[in-house]
Predict the 3D structure of the following.
Amino acid sequence: MAEVAVQDSSYNHVTSERIFELAEPKHSKSVWLTSFGPRVMWGTQDMLWPISNGALGGEATPRVMELSSPKKNFQTGVKVNRPQYVYSCGRESVIWDISPLARRAEASDRITRLANHKQAPREYLEKEDRPHYNFSCGRVSPIWDVSDGAKQCDDRPRTSQLARAKSPHPQFQGERQVESLISRSTLIARCTERLGHLSRPKNRPNGPFREPQWPVSDSAKVFSATTRSLELAKPKSLPEGYQPNREDPQWKIPRSARRAIASSRINELAGPIIRASMDHVQFDPDAFLVKETALKAACSPRVEELAAPIRR
């Protein structure tokens, strides 16, 4: 009883507004389209399913009584409902009172070293004094003062080798001159008779090769053409049934065509195609009618098992 009294006195600082806020039931996020089972309000003491009379009149086992006992409160003294424990969502918090011994204690060399802030490297500090460092956008610049020792030191064979310019390929040929020089032997040389004959231009007579009119021989005048020549000399004829254009583009309709009566077949073909509207085509009055055989059918155990809702 003393322990219970201590626990009750520790909740005096809790306001009634917080109790009323926690006592409100949880609002359901389900809608009528996704809800299933009986209508249950979350946060209340109502059961999802009715409890049988046998369960109400049964006696609890020792194991159930052990599990139903409340958890023992190990917070005693100043640790009972400490504020920092509440504000840290029930987890251990680093917000606690510092003891006087910790305030008077001296830090070790390791702690002092770890407490120092990170310093910039020496190279960075040296670059701040260079005027060209700011002009080069703060990046490392190849423009710096060369030391006297670097000026007086002797170069190494490796440094001299790296300092040499890249030599061209052994088979590299430079640019040729725009005009080629003719050798003296070529200038005094004489061409052969064959080269002189080939170098001559082709001899063509000036003017037409023959007169535009020439006499026809007597044999050509009395010559008779063959059958094949006559066949090939015929012009292309018009196809059979060809009718030339009429002289007058407008012609009168005959009286017989005016008095003609169309047959039933022609009237049938001349009629337009009448299609039913989509509302009438897709309308089915028996779409939601259940057949009598389906009303009297009994589902299998497997179908009943699949139709049962999922119990969560």
User: Anything to note?
Assistant: DSSP finds 20 helices and no strands in the chain.
